Amino acid sequence: QIVSPQSAPTCIENKNDVSRENSTVDFSKVDLHFMKKIPPGAEASNILVGELEFLDRAVVAFVRLSPAVLLTGLAEVPIPTRFLFILLGPLGKGQQYHEIGRSIATLMTDEVFHDVAYKAKDRNDLVSGIDEFLDQVTVLPPGEWDPTIRIEPPKNVPSQEKRKIPGVPNGTAAHGDAEQPGGHSGPELQRTGKFFGGLILDIKRKAPFFWSDFRDALSLQCLASFLFLYCACMSPVITFGGLLGEATEGRISAIESLFGASMTGIAYSLFGGQPLTILGSTGPVLVFEKILFKFCKEYGLSYLSLRASIGLWTAILCIILVATDASSLVCYITRFTEEAFASLICIIFIYEALEKLFHLSETYPINMHNDLDLLTKYSCSCVEPEHPSNKTLGYWQDYNISASDVPWENLTVSECKKFHGEFVGRACGHHGPYVPDVLFWSVILFFSTVTLSSTLKQFKTSRYFPTKVRSVVSDFAVFLTILSMVLIDYAIGIPSPKLQVPNAFKPTRDDRGWFISPLGPNPWWTVIAAVIPALLCTILIFMDQQITAVIINRKEHKLKKGCGYHLDLLMVAVMLGVCSIMGLPWFVAATVLSISHVNSLKLESECSAPGEQPKFLGIREQRVTGLMIFILMGSSVFLTSILKFIPMPVLYGVFLYMGASSLKGIQLFDRIKLFWMPAKHQPDFIYLRHVPLRKVHLFTVIQLSCLVLLWIIKVSRAAIVFPMMVLALVFVRKLMDFFFTKRELSWLDDLMPESKKKKLEDAEKE
Questions:
Q1: CA angle, 314 as apex, 306 and 320 as ends, to 5°?
Q2: Percent of the chain at pLDDT above 70?
Q3: Average pLDDT over residues 17-24
Q4: Which domain holds residue 123?
Q5: Which of 151, 166, 196 is the last residue of a domain?
Q6: What are the pLDDT digits (tens) for 204-218?
């Protein structure tokens, strides 16, 4: 008996509904594990062969039941039977009958013959279906393959749609198989020609899904995503606030950064067009703030007031862009531009994670030239500086300190640094006493976090534990890693640097409040002049926001609820204006955090036949994870007693993991690997089928050169023009029309998912 569960076509009606309530099946004896693998609506084909001594010749019957009937005891699991194949013959030919049964079972597993069997009206239809199957079947000679070796099932089953269309000669593309246009050409980016027309369509598109965005979050996967991204978002927000505090002399610092991120994130998660996007702080914004503060200090202007004016102008300009459907320009941002931008942000995450780890050696220095014989003479003392700098003298003068009155030898390390003392002795470095344990322990925590996160994330495909356990461990991979590292760090007891969270909700400086006047003490004309830097800031916000949105809304993510570029930009603009008035940092879409958010919410098919690879179904689209992340971020002021146990090296490790994992799937890095790969070992990338290898390499070199140029600008003093350079990539891409044909560019610079292109290509073959 051979069972082949198949899903019936939609044209077959009146199927029996087999459930625990309406059946007499003893479910205690059913293979429930196998039952879970079978998709809803599946029906069985029962193949029965046997020998009877009173028969002179074989008797064959192929039966299609209407409706399908639950035949107890035939199938391995209680699903209705649609087809019966019965073969009875005389004694002595049992092996032949068995082979015929196997052949019929193979026929019934074929997608095309399966449809023929459902719709056949007579014997001739079945024979035609068998002929079509034999025309398409691949035969392996006995000497070419050992039948005892198991052939692993393919990861992606090729489409059989072309076989279902009659009258198509071999080598001819069937109607509907033509290559679909790539890029961003959906209704979301069509110009309406009406004032706020695109925004109105965005609202109409997203409104029907608003309540489902909350219902769809009822999943353990969302809890895992929330816990992972909360930890991942907290550190950069606080770090950004700290850097901003240093740059602005405390006018905007960590508490303002936390408050601004929480308020902006909550509003965006509730009303944004694409709630999968996570807002965060960006490097160009920090550079802009530094330049603005320096300008205000030189010309005696109020920094917060001028910043409020610039922020309000930027918000107004962004709203004008929304009103004029300017987001439709996103269609010019192709894979070439977005991959260069995304790669840069991922590399920056990796670089900054390693850089922060390296900088710990300044806070916790180690002695690289120890003399073990002199360990008894090692000591470190704080003394008065022999040649105090102007900064030190200015500090002493500001606080009325006399060097002779300070008990230098009795000061702690932090007090010595505060009073600008010097450290002397064999056990001292330039920045204080050597602390070898902390640095080495931080390195261990850092790489352990990266390794454990990667291992647990891949645990889903391991061979240990049941599927459900593996799935939960994989979903909670980063959270479990952070929890494990915190417990290990606490147990070891080495004083590693910890996450510092403000413990009081009030402005960092007492001379400012939560409301900033756009004019303040500044001259009236500064409000009008602020429109000039606001233009540059608008480009910065627009490019950062929309490129990230393009990456999140890629077709390969299979989003079903649509997107809202205009609505996204409106929410960012409104909250940017609010943050400007309140003296809070500006927040815009964060590329790596958003990609990590999407990756943590991927959906795969739960019902798949044994041995079959789960299919990617799309993303769990909802608003709750982003909402909870930013609500808890705002409440972090009251969670200081818990958050103070999280070591900073662990968070640096999470940054490295996010940057590295976000690089997966970026075609640029696949093409870079082709430089050192012989042609015979190259993967079957679809563009390699249609574009000469030298042209592929030329395209990669140009894209890589743009990436290097972006990196140089990003880390230099010219970082303020970074958005302009990202915009320039669009023009570079336009110039490539002179070096590549349109056909070549359609394969190299197209947003159509790789697997879909392959499917179209394979369907057109024959």
A1: 150
A2: 80
A3: 44
A4: 2-151
A5: 151
A6: 887 888 888 788 778
